[in-house]
Design brief:
This protein is an alpha+beta fold. Helices cover 42% and strands 20% of the residues. It has one domain: Gyrase A, domain 2. Strands 1, 2, 3, 4 and 5 form a five-stranded antiparallel sheet that branches. It is globular.
């Protein structure tokens, strides 16, 4: 079973996760990706949906045209866990392969 990250573990993880920030008032992290267009953004979400399903760990996210905003937190532990860090890294790798225009 996953365990909630300690404050030191959370801070250490954030130091390696480029563009991810803490969500105010929650033990969660968030990031927005901007892609070339809707098709690329949707392709990103499709790839991540398959990865998330295989991990049994599903993100909170929204999509408006070319932008995808993601929030990660492990509901079973009431905050951030190693699963969130792992999924964030996978998201960054997929986004990088799709040529993210900018991170907002």
């Amino acid at each position: 079973m996953e365990e909630k990250l300690t404050e030191d573990e959370r801070n250490d993880a954030l130091s390696f996760l480029v563009g991810w920030t803490l969500v105010e008032g929650r033990d969660a992290i968030t990031k927005s990706y901007k892609f070339a267009d809707f098709v690329v953004a949707f392709g990103f979400m499709t790839q991540i949906a398959l990865i998330a399903e295989s991990m049994n760990h599903h993100p909170e996210w929204s999509n408006v045209y070319s932008q995808v905003t993601v929030t990660l937190s492990t509901h079973d532990v009431g905050g951030l866990s190693a699963l969130d860090v792992k999924l964030a890294n996978k998201m960054d790798a997929v986004a990088s392969a799709l040529l993210v225009l900018e991170e907002t």
